[in-house]
Design goal:
The complex is a heterodimer of chains A (301) and B (221). Chain A is an alpha+beta fold and 301 residues long. In chain A, 66% of the residues lie in helices and 8% in strands. Chain A is built from 11 helices and 4 strands, in the order H-H-E-H-E-H-H-E-H-E-H-H-H-H-H. In chain A, helix 2 runs antiparallel to helix 7 and helix 7 packs across helix 11. Chain A starts with a helix and ends with a helix. Chain B is an alpha/beta fold and 221 residues long. Helix content of chain B is 33%, strand content 26%. Chain B is built from 7 helices and 10 strands. In chain B, helix 3 packs parallel to helix 5. The chains are: A alpha+beta (301), B alpha/beta (221). The interface between A and B is medium-sized, with 22 and 33 residues.
Chain lengths: 301, 221
């Protein structure tokens, strides 16, 4: 590059030295935004895995009769229910759950003491439904009741919809947090732009005086805030990405997962979504800086 | 071309700084604006370079009535005016070269297109060896010459200068006035506010004098 070309590249606004407090605020905002976004992705993935795991299945639960007889007891009712299920069109597999499996299911709540073995645990029969097949649950329940009056059928729809509601609540809460962070980022940039205009008032007034279009002056500011926001929010969301990677790495490090909590690590595709945080932050900063400068310039004659 | 009709100007609720000012500047003329300190010279210049709106009266600039013109038309009008401010108003973080090149940048010209012109002009005002220097490292006189170079580099239609020779020795002052004269011969209308009687006497140009905010025509050029 020739000497003269270097000279004419002088920036209209002087370069700020060091990280401004705004950069720290933007970095923290981006960190929180990336955490919220990651939480919404985790909730969405977990809801999807719940749906996949439970849809197309039904569970028949056979309880201990109040007064068991030789003809009507838990074993006979279970066998009868299995026969009914196997004979029902649309049902693909029927798997009765062993007592050991049932004990394992209650282990997270009750532990594995000998006491658990004395509890009257119901017999569970797991059935899968052929994809696309329609099973009339009301009719199936009625038929089961005739041979196994202590049975009931759970097609998991209530459970799925509750889990879906829970996941949706988490997702919408995350969106609300993202919206709040976007508003706070815009407010912080607007405040900083106004302060920047104050600090560089002489330069802005001179450029305005010399016939610079408002867009020219706004560009000097919007680029400054776009680039500094991009850098600060990249650091913030990068740290959040590292936090998610570390959470995912805990399992590999042998840390026991918390029962019923989804794994907190994000997969590479979900991590890529975190890149949206600096990009959107930079766009918000750019637009806010531009609008703030244009509004301030409109006040000058 | 430039016309003031009964123009009055007051800042806020204060007294009128300019009263019933009426005059006309024909294209390509050279005029001195004189008057004691506080007579309103700087205010009159501010109205001319569109820094302030008048409190009353009509101003017509390059055939445009400012009272009815759209604000969006002002930047184009301002770019036709070169101003040498009394306090220079150079950008401290830019080199002398970049300061002088600023009006050309604002009018959308590319560096390849104006680098030669800017360097030549800096040579002309005696600052050929200070092109990289930033204003805080320049003397008052050098800063003034940068400010003058910036005002004339775009060959404006109107050149306004507030005490442009106040900080330079007589030899440089003569050279700068010759520069203004050269620009004037090329068609620029020049209005110089000054206290320097010697400068006015030597030039025989028109002189308008402000006394207590009122304009008196002393000499027609």
């Amino acid at each position: 590059m020739s000497e003269s070309r270097q000279r004419v590249r002088g920036r209209i606004l002087p370069r700020e030295k060091g990280a401004a407090p705004l950069d720290v605020v933007i970095g923290v905002m981006a960190f929180l935004a990336a955490l919220a976004l990651g939480a919404s992705l985790l909730a969405d993935r977990q809801a999807e895995s719940w749906r996949e795991g439970l849809a197309g299945r039904l569970t028949v639960q056979v309880l201990q009769p109040d007064h068991p007889t030789a003809a009507l007891n838990m074993d006979s009712e279970t066998d009868a229910a299995i026969q009914i299920l196997r004979g029902t069109p649309g049902i693909l597999t029927v798997t009765p759950m062993s007592e050991a499996d049932a004990t394992k299911l209650v282990e997270p709540w009750l532990g594995a003491d000998a006491l658990v073995k004395d509890l009257p645990l119901p017999r569970l029969i797991d059935a899968t439904i052929q994809p696309g097949a329609h099973v009339d649950f009301a009719e199936l329940t009625a038929r089961l009741k005739t041979v196994a009056p202590d049975s009931n059928v759970d097609d998991h729809t209530r459970w799925i919809s509750r889990l879906q509601n829970l996941a949706n609540t988490i997702i919408y809460a995350a969106y609300a947090i993202l919206a709040l962070i976007a508003v706070a980022t815009a407010a912080a940039v607007s405040f900083a732009t106004r302060a920047g205009l104050e600090a560089h008032h002489d330069i802005v007034a001179l450029l305005h005086q010399m016939g610079a279009h408002s867009g020219f002056i706004a560009r000097a500011f919007e680029w400054h805030y776009l680039l500094s926001t991009l850098a600060a929010s990249a650091v913030g969301s990068g740290l959040a990405g590292i936090a998610f990677l570390a959470a995912g790495g805990l399992e590999f490090a042998g840390v026991e997962p918390v029962p019923f909590l989804p794994p907190l690590g994000l997969n590479p595709r979900e991590l890529a979504w975190l890149l949206a945080v600096p990009l959107v932050s930079a766009i918000i900063a750019w637009a806010t800086a531009r609008l703030s400068v244009l509004a301030a310039l409109r006040e000058i004659y | 071309m430039i016309r003031f009709e009964n123009v009055g100007m007051r800042y806020g609720p204060g007294p009128e700084v300019l009263r019933d000012v009426t005059f006309q500047l024909e294209p390509g003329t050279f005029t001195f604006l004189t008057g004691p300190s506080g007579a309103g010279k700087s205010t009159l210049l501010k109205l001319l370079y569109l820094a302030e709106p008048p409190s009353r009266g009509l101003i017509t600039l390059f055939g445009t009535d400012l009272a009815t013109a759209r604000r969006s038309a002002f930047p184009a009008l301002r770019r036709r005016i070169g101003v040498v401010f009394q306090d220079f108003r150079l950008l401290a973080h830019l080199s002398a070269f970049d300061n002088v090149a600023l009006p050309l940048r604002l009018s959308g010209r590319k560096p390849d297109d104006y680098t030669h012109d800017v360097e030549e002009l800096l040579n002309w005002v005696g600052l050929g060896d200070r092109t990289h220097a930033k204003p805080p490292t320049l003397s008052g006189g050098e800063q003034q010459r940068v400010a003058i170079a910036r005002a004339v580099v775009g060959q404006p239609d109107l050149l306004l200068a507030d005490e442009p020779t106040g900080n330079v020795d007589p030899e440089i002052a003569q050279r700068l006035i010759r520069l203004f004269g050269e620009l004037n011969r090329l068609g620029t209308t020049v209005l110089i506010a000054t206290h320097d009687r010697g400068l006015i006497e030597r030039s025989r140009s028109r002189e308008m004098r402000l006394v207590d905010g009122r304009l008196v025509e002393l000499r027609r050029g």
